[in-house]
Design brief:
It contains six helices and three strands. The protein is an alpha+beta fold. The chain has a three-stranded antiparallel sheet with strand order 1-3-2. Strand 2 and strand 3 form a beta hairpin.
Length: 115
């Protein structure tokens, strides 16, 4: 996943209500009405949140009659976890190992801190 895709995904996750929706969906597929039961907002507001998550590739929606069912996409979980591991690693292909980087050296590490 590139930085642009990750940024879109993180923006979608930046809302506490959407994080709660993801938490709910971590147990499996849910109907919109079941998700809505956990919140104090209207169905149109839920639709907005779900559209943001869907556009970011976080959830998949299926229709069964008049009902919308949502589930986390497998690719979201895999991509997100992989990207987070890569982002906070110091693997050889990490951008922090770029030989042209002007921020190398212990003095800079002390300024910005290390994980």
């Amino acid at each position: 996943m590139n930085y642009e895709e990750m940024s879109v995904m993180l923006k979608a996750l930046a809302d506490p209500k959407r994080l709660k929706i993801i938490d709910l969906l971590s147990c499996g597929s849910l109907c919109a009405c079941d998700i809505l039961a956990h919140f104090d907002f209207t169905q149109p507001t839920l639709s907005h949140h779900m559209k943001v998550l869907e556009k970011a590739g976080v959830v998949l929606v299926t229709k069964e009659g008049q009902w919308h069912h949502y589930q986390l996409t497998e690719s979201f979980v895999d991509k997100f976890m992989g990207t987070m591991m890569h982002l906070f690693s110091d693997e050889e292909d990490c951008v922090c190992h770029n030989k042209n980087c002007s921020c190398k050296g212990e003095k800079n590490d002390e300024k910005i801190g290390t994980i």
